């Protein structure tokens, strides 16, 4: 009898919208948010001045410690159509105000780039730790052979952190359908629902607000099963391709 809840979810009007938004935001976040910490770590690693390096690290790490509520509040302030810095700049250039937070088309971009800003510094720590283990003699030998800085980054630094990149990519793919509920819920409103409604917010509406506990549990279980399948599949592919995997 429990399968009726899964059937109801698959046949519902919201099913494809939820899948499209959840998968769309996740892929967008993976495409933008995953390589940025790698590039940041590689750039910080090339900085010679310790003081400048610590300053950059402090500035990029700091947003991670802001609460989600504070970050969303900052987003609303900066993107306000009346007093937001971005809209003031657009108006100074002769453009009209843009209602970013009520436009479903802007939701994914705002969510992803604000998340990149908040997490890129913290996510780069693992890559910096891996880069710290690179043998300096490899760089010295490469310099003797006439390798440029970019060539040394490509042929020495990147291969050294490749196992770390693969493991984190596997973990990211395993949580593809588990977007942060709190931030999306705080940014969500009736006007941007077409682009912001994801599985986690639907589970909240149907389970907590609608008191449909069995149905919302079935939707949540579907979400978990998809994540598990993605994790196992990507792990198997990574093990065959690079011999690096979680198990």
Automatic annotation (TrEMBL):
Q: Which controlled-vocabulary keywords does the entry list?
A: Cell membrane, Membrane, Transmembrane, Transmembrane helix, Transport
TM segment ranges = 21-44, 59-79, 86-107, 119-135, 156-181, 213-234
List the CDD domains.
TM_PBP2
- Tell me the InterPro entries matching this sequence: MetI-like, MetI-like_sf, UgpAE/MalFG_permease
Question: Which family does the entry's similarity section mention?
Answer: Belongs to the binding-protein-dependent transport system permease family.
Give the ABC transmembrane type-1 domain ranges.
19-234
Would you tell me the protein name for this molecule? Answer: Aldouronate transport system permease protein
